Amino acid sequence: MALDLIHKEKNIDLITGLKTRTQTGRPNWDKIFEELKESGYGPVTVFYCGSPVLAR
């Protein structure tokens, strides 16, 4: 909550020092890919390099 207020006031993320706000947690990939599909963006390819546990 405090990080949100500081970001709103100073337009800076205290974790990274960047203007873009850090979003914690895991992305909802099903939702993201569904939105891409519905937008008619075209073919999407994903490459992942890392732990198989994190891949799901």
UniProtKB/TrEMBL annotation:
<dbReference type="Pfam" id="PF08030">
    <property type="entry name" value="NAD_binding_6"/>
</dbReference>
<protein>
    <recommendedName>
        <fullName>Ferric reductase NAD binding domain-containing protein</fullName>
    </recommendedName>
</protein>
<dbReference type="InterPro" id="IPR039261">
    <property type="entry name" value="FNR_nucleotide-bd"/>
</dbReference>
<dbReference type="InterPro" id="IPR013121">
    <property type="entry name" value="Fe_red_NAD-bd_6"/>
</dbReference>
<keyword id="KW-0560">Oxidoreductase</keyword>
<feature type="domain" description="Ferric reductase NAD binding">
    <location>
        <begin position="8"/>
        <end position="55"/>
    </location>
</feature>
<dbReference type="GO" id="GO:0016491">
    <property type="term" value="F:oxidoreductase activity"/>
</dbReference>
